[in-house]
Design a protein that fits this description.
The protein is mainly alpha-helical and about 300 residues long. It has a single domain, classed as Farnesyl Diphosphate Synthase (Orthogonal Bundle), CATH 1.10.600.10. It is about 70% helix and about 0% strand. The chain is built from 15 helices and two strands. Helix 3 packs antiparallel against helix 4. It starts with a helix and ends with a helix.
Amino acid sequence: MKGKMMTDIKEQLKSMAETVEGELTECFERPFDAPDIIISAMKYSLFAGGKRLRPILMKETCKMMGGCPDDATKMACAIEMIHTYSLIHDDLPAMDDDELRRGKPTNHMVYGENIAVLAGDALLNFATEIGLEGIAEVPKEKTAAAIKAMTILMTASGVNGMIGGQTGDLLCEEDQEINEEKIRYIHAHKTAALLTAAIVCGATIAQASESDIAALTEYGLDIGMAFQIADDILDVTSSTKVLGKPVGSDVKNHKSTFVSLYGLVSAQEKVREFRDHALAALKTLPVDTQFLTDIANYICNRALD
């Protein structure tokens, strides 16, 4: 039964990802007053694959909470662009120095480090343009909610979110006194912040209640933590062929993780704890949360099988 459930959610995500792919393609169907190489570099990483989990979560949460998912489409595209820009920059020689992402050469390996930096910058700025376009397109009575969602997204992407977490991650490589509190900060900001934003933005656009948004925030933070710990586990247990990126990079970059701190078995137990806490938060919602339940299990089971 477990295997069938995993197959079902994978097929569901694949179909949803194809829809997001088309929406992202539409974003580029406009004239650009820029050298072709920068547009090519942006599209190279944006369309290099990926599960499109964050835009899917945003649109599906909006729908789940009684909103119109079309109102979240452009902001969903924006979050995927922001996620992609972060990957381009993470892979740079000055950061993780990786040569493979999603089974393909990383952006700087194809376009050079200078263009890769600019491609990441361009995607972040383009994400803002697209998100603001989305706000302008929603009905007037929803504008305030859309602006609030955009604020949530940009905060989660910035110094109080993903960038703060990435900075902590870099400092962690030289920290000889790393502990669980520091690792939790990194995971909560570098990974969980953007995943949580996807969910909360969707609920905000749907004009969900504060109590429901609080429960979804709790769920998002928990699955974000579980997602990163699962990734750390797979960095030890999986292969480059399966992951599409180099394994063993945490050891190479001297990164401290739940795996290095507590060992594989205890790290897997942490994944279960975060999953169970996330599922408990969903039970407080007055709507059908089956999709988010399946997502939590999908995220966690890949490191527990």
